[in-house]
Amino acid sequence: MRFEQMAWKDFLAQRLEVLKTWPTGKDVDLDEGLRYQRGIPEPKNFARAMNKAKSGRKTLIQPRAGVALIDDHIRLLRHLETEGTADLLPTTIDAYTRQNRYAEAAVGIEKSTAAGHSLLNGFPAVNHGVSGCRRVTEAVTKPIQVRHGTPDARLLAEISLAGGFTSYEGGGISYNIPYAKKVDLGDSLRAWRYVDRLVGYYEENGISINREPFGPLTGTLLPPFIGHVVAILEGLLALEQGVKSITLGYGQGGNVLQDLAALTSLRELAGEYFAKAGFSDFDLTIVFHQWMGGFPEDEAKAFAVISLGAFVAAAAEVEKIIVKSPHEAMGIPTKEANASGLKATRQVLSMLTDQKICADNDIIRREKELIRNEVRCLMEAVENAAGGDPIQGICRAFAGGLLDIPFAPSIYNRGRVLPARDNEGFIRLFSKGNLPLTDDIMSFHKDRLAERAKAESRPVTFQMVTDDIYAISKSKLIGRPK
Amino acid sequence: MRFEQMAWKDFLAQRLEVLKTWPTGKDVDLDEGLRYQRGIPEPKNFARAMNKAKSGRKTLIQPRAGVALIDDHIRLLRHLETEGTADLLPTTIDAYTRQNRYAEAAVGIEKSTAAGHSLLNGFPAVNHGVSGCRRVTEAVTKPIQVRHGTPDARLLAEISLAGGFTSYEGGGISYNIPYAKKVDLGDSLRAWRYVDRLVGYYEENGISINREPFGPLTGTLLPPFIGHVVAILEGLLALEQGVKSITLGYGQGGNVLQDLAALTSLRELAGEYFAKAGFSDFDLTIVFHQWMGGFPEDEAKAFAVISLGAFVAAAAEVEKIIVKSPHEAMGIPTKEANASGLKATRQVLSMLTDQKICADNDIIRREKELIRNEVRCLMEAVENAAGGDPIQGICRAFAGGLLDIPFAPSIYNRGRVLPARDNEGFIRLFSKGNLPLTDDIMSFHKDRLAERAKAESRPVTFQMVTDDIYAISKSKLIGRPK
Amino acid sequence: MNPTHLVLGVIGADCHSVGNKILDAYFTEAGFHVTNLGVMVSQDEFIDAAVETDAAAILVSSLYGHGEIDCEGLRAKCVERGLDRILLYVGGNLVVGKTPYAEVEKKFLDMGFNRVFGPQVDLAEVVELLRSDIAAAGRK
Amino acid sequence: MNPTHLVLGVIGADCHSVGNKILDAYFTEAGFHVTNLGVMVSQDEFIDAAVETDAAAILVSSLYGHGEIDCEGLRAKCVERGLDRILLYVGGNLVVGKTPYAEVEKKFLDMGFNRVFGPQVDLAEVVELLRSDIAAAGRK
Ligand code: B12
Ligand code: B12
């Protein structure tokens, strides 16, 4: 695959169109944005914080949070940095903005003002514009990131980077396939090429902006290698456009050893693939997401899930952990509930900070080897499909089911892969769809699932998958029959 | 050491005196008690439940709980077994009863009735008598145990066993040194010989009663080997009197690998010492106590500590875990808070139940070897001091500081041992007092502490110990200087 | 006997697809003929499909919190389009934030839904209710 | 200058000895002369020691929940024994169950204690208060 930067004149031409898509676009001025970013104190730079976490072997904690109105949003973030002791702050964007439905977001803002509480599930940053974003980023003391799920996030990027955010989540695959239904994959990949080029431009001008592809995808029984391949591909595409600070993510699967294997192998494999593609000037860090699937409704049980996630993050020594709240199963958390998830996480992390726990053993090694082989199968297939052009390769791979994300809503995803847990809770494949995995690999998966089927005296069916999806919310890891 | 059963006629002679120490004593009839116990359904027998947990590799969960009045106590226990899904129930005895101050307990009952809520920190079982106990044990569906801290627990044992309890916590050392100030150690050991003989008598008559020495002692920076020696000695004394179902305990220290090493070595070493002393007909199980030192006040942080404890229990595959509540730092928990500790624990346990996690590695092996050597030093010293009589040996060992429990209130304890955490949070000794540890062992401890002292640029002093005592309540494991 | 037709989908800009796939499988298994519109379904798409299949009920999901905004007016639109007897069920995390179920239920009943479900609902019970509601509505 | 004398102990049938050892070390370090009676101290033992050492204050701990019962009448007994100006401080987990601090404080102030502390108290602040209370009471 060849990696080429977007031509600057193409970027600027597109830019004119992008900024016209909503009135607040006209307030964005690239150079003024750079100047503004230069004035942000270093300790508030996200890229720098991630780098320091790596060299200091620290795990930083970050919540998700966003409400409709600026003042409420500031109050929320301040609570999370003081009471919650968050190291890094988010601004989670509402779902209308994510679909570029700014008019509906405007209705949401109005209704929220009228109701006195947020009717939007996030912060409509485009509607609030550059100045609204600056009010937010200036009101806090910690590095702050845009977190969303937007297939075409060009305008949001323009506004929020000029608005003082120093990290931007997402990617052309990870913010399309799990988050959209009918958005053409090529379109979202190209939109994200624009975003990455914008970040690259900031980098060229001395402003480091952290980029974070969204690792957990659908958050539901995702075998590590699928997420890893997406993360590596989006990493390559970002580096191609001049991104330097890159954070790859993985969502807790629930089996501790599989999670540990996944986290170490993500770091290793990404480093290798990036180097192989000729990139060297990058700063790679890893983020772990606490359990991304259905949570238990009971708050005590939710705290247990949260703590277990924190345990894995500590054992794996990742640079960042994204924290859930005890309200997860029920609704967007209050600021208090959100802070309490942070506090529980902090407590586990700091109790484990000086400990070395199960960093390595035979099972972890077996799983790492497996993940490495699986990733190789898929990466080779994408390369072969690419004919030199990575975006082409990715589109063809999804069309042919060589890449396929379980449970995703997008019509550009085949959706024929079916995962299930084995008898020890490792996530395996029971149907590989069209994924280009070798027979060796698949027979390992099948054997492990057969073992469980035998233990449960039932065949491996969709019922088992359903049971596994519900399991953690029903206080189990594996969805055994009653 | 020679192990001899108490002569039955001596037992009966003492018994007459014991039953006279409070009016409810007259209602206890040994044979009627046996008949009553025979009527208790098997699933409610504690010894059997522990045995089943072992063969089924299950970890059972048990709270602590006790209030002054019978009806309230029943309501509390029912909540814990339904909402909390406790596998095993407790009845925690109030602190007056523990000191045989039944008259003050009576005042506490009166004041509690008047106040409409419990002013006692436990259930005054002696005052409530056999019939009161039976009301309690009949009202629940799970096996139920007496948990207390009573140096002379003879009357309490007579009443509660006749009252339908099927497990009895405590021992002559573990319920004296951490729980009393001026009770002669020989006296408490002899009182517990009586209790063990009583349990032995039930066993001879076909009623299995579980016995559980109190492992965590002062719950404060206890190096594993000290608790292990006490547990093994109390185990031997119990077996001597005919006890068959014995559960040895260990309280979470906070370093995961040290805790894992401690739990496996406790099982192994106890089995070996029991066999060496000639006992074979016993059923040994292990109980793990979630963190027994000062808790964080914040409930989210407390949930984190609770979940981390549950993690260790699952990894170590112990038969039972004693669960704390999010109210721990503040006061005796409400029934809701108590149940929520159980629910968080259950969630972690069931998510880990089919997983095998860091069961063994080099560090665990190093720590197990260390514990084994430390235990051997102390056990040999007690044997040498015994002149054949274990009780004698124990008394002399404490008098000479060959056994010494950090931070204990008893004047029969030298109190010269000072523990502190090393740079990875393992609990080590910085002053061994008069413990008969070899120079090799002590130089290991000292080296590890020197490493921390260096990292913190300060000497190992009492300030470091104090910092460590506060650490977990202040969200750390190791009390580092600011 | 023809199976009863249902229309299923996740309303608005909501992308939560996991529950939707499970609901599809569950109601199909229970004997209904399910037209699953997937995620991000507009009110008009729901109604078009219901008209087309002569559905007895529309099962609306909303997980992401905008349910309150997205569902408003659905009943009126149904009536407008001649679907005056159609059952409207709604379920999921219907509003923003953890909210007592009774409050949420009232809000959506007032909007004209026949039944309102939280995320922890037992699907077997829903099938029972649906069968009896359909029978009561005189359809099959 | 003679150091100020304090009497320290854990009242009633309470065996919690860890905090007591820390308090002993802390107040000694801060320059007071501490008579530490350890755990399980009766009201009379506190008063005897205070009389004997001419203490400026008695520092009572109660952790185990029976503080309410154990502390009642201590002030009256002090007066009875001629300790009319002695400062009485109490701290720990003073009542059974998690209870708002203000409620606990009122209860113990009403019983005649001069200051009441929860378990999370900052000992440096206590030393400050104690110094100024002693100065105000005209003792040193
Ligand atoms: C997985 C997940 C995701 C994945 C979804 C992947 C995918 N494409 O499906 C990702 C990470 C992409 C995601 C994104 C977002 N999510 Co989300 N997500 C979840 C999570 C953790 C689990 C959902 C799930 O799959 N559950 C398992 C399935 C089986 O259960 P279910 O979806 O609840 O469906 C069942 C029931 O609800 C019921 N049901 C549903 N509909 C109906 C209808 C009827 C008629 C009946 C009878 C029953 C019924 O039956 C279903 C089957 O049992 C939930 C929280 C939770 N539950 O723990 C949050 C949650 C739903 N997400 C939430 C939010 C806000 C978002 C985002 C907006 C991001 C953000 N601001 O945090 C974006 C959405 C963007 C968009 N455009 O929609 C919120 C909604 C908040 C609220 N309502 O107040 C939740 C509750 C988390 C939270 N507490 O903040 N999410
Ligand atoms: C360790 C511990 C034990 C050990 C004690 C070992 C020993 N001999 O010391 C063991 C396991 C034996 C034990 C036993 C019991 N315990 Co206990 N124990 C604890 C625990 C976990 C930590 C206590 C501790 O050492 N903290 C560390 C030290 C440094 O802090 P501290 O004791 O709070 O003291 C500090 C402050 O309180 C303050 N302070 C104290 N006194 C004073 C006085 C003044 C004037 C000032 C200014 C400050 C001050 O300064 C001290 C130093 O910083 C606490 C809960 C917690 N805190 O997390 C429960 C706790 C104190 N125990 C409790 C109870 C009830 C008991 C038992 C009755 C058993 C039961 N029913 O559960 C028995 C007591 C029997 C008896 N006769 O006393 C309850 C009290 C409940 C309440 N008040 O509502 C607590 C709060 C746990 C709970 N939530 O249920 N316990």
Q: What is the compact description of this entry?
A:
Chain A is of the alpha/beta class and 482 residues long. Chain A has helices spanning 8-19, 30-38, 46-55, 70-82, 95-98, 102-115, 125-139, 154-162, 185-204, 224-240, 256-276, 299-316, 335-352, 362-386, 390-400, 439-455, 462-471, and strands at residues 60-62, 89-92, 144-147, 167-169, 210-212, 245-251, 283-289, 320-322, 418-421, 427-431.
Average pLDDT of chain A, rounded to a whole number, is: 97
Q: What's the CATH H-level homologous superfamily of chain C?
A: Cobalamin-binding domain
The oligomeric state is heterotetramer
**Terminal residue distance of chain A:** 50 Å
Top CATH class of chain A: Alpha Beta
For the biggest sheet of chain A, the summary is: 8 strands, parallel
Provide the number of structural domains of chain C.
1
Q: How does the SSE layout of this entry go?
A:
The complex is a heterotetramer, with 2 copies of chain A (482 residues) and 2 copies of chain C (140 residues).
Chain A: H1 8-19, H2 30-38, H3 46-55, E1 60-62, H4 70-82, E2 89-92, H5 95-98, H6 102-115, H7 125-139, E3 144-147, H8 154-162, E4 167-169, H9 185-204, E5 210-212, H10 224-240, E6 245-251, H11 256-276, E7 283-289, H12 299-316, E8 320-322, H13 335-352, H14 362-386, H15 390-400, E9 418-421, E10 427-431, H16 439-455, H17 462-471
Helix pairs in contact in A: 4-7, 4-13, 7-8, 8-9, 9-10, 9-15, 10-11, 10-14, 11-12, 11-14, 12-13, 14-15
Chain C: E1 5-10, H1 18-29, E2 33-36, H2 43-53, E3 57-61, H3 67-71, H4 74-80, E4 87-91, H5 101-110, E5 115-117, H6 123-136
Parallel strand pairs in C: 1-2, 1-3, 3-4, 4-5
The complex binds cobalamin (2 copies).
Describe the protein:
The complex is a heterotetramer, with two copies of chain A (482 residues) and two copies of chain C (140 residues). Chain A has 482 residues and is α/β, with parallel strands linked by helices. Chain A has a single domain (8-351), classed as TIM Barrel. Helix content of chain A is 50%, strand content 9%. Chain A has 17 helices and ten strands. In chain A, the strands form two sheets. In chain A, strands 1-8-7-6-5-4-3-2 form an eight-stranded parallel sheet. Chain A has a two-stranded antiparallel ribbon with strand order 9-10. In chain A, helix 11 links the parallel strand 6 and strand 7 (283-289). The longest helix of chain A has 25 residues, at 362-386. Chain C has 140 residues and is α/β, with parallel strands linked by helices. Chain C has a single domain (2-135), classed as Cobalamin-binding domain (Rossmann fold, 3-Layer(aba) Sandwich). Chain C is 42% helix and 16% strand. Chain C has six helices and five strands; from the N terminus they run E-H-E-H-E-H-H-E-H-E-H. Chain C has helices at residues 18-29, 43-53, 67-71, 74-80, 101-110, 123-136; strands spanning 5-10, 33-36, 57-61, 87-91, 115-117. The termini of chain C are close together. At the A-C interface, helix 5, helix 6 and helix 17 of A face helix 1 of C. Bound molecules: cobalamin (2 copies). One cobalamin sits between chains B (64, 92, 95, 98, 121-122, 149, 178-179, 218-220, 292-295, 327-329, 331-332, 407-409, 469) and D (13-19, 22-23, 59, 61, 63-65, 89-93, 96-97, 117, 119, 121, 126).
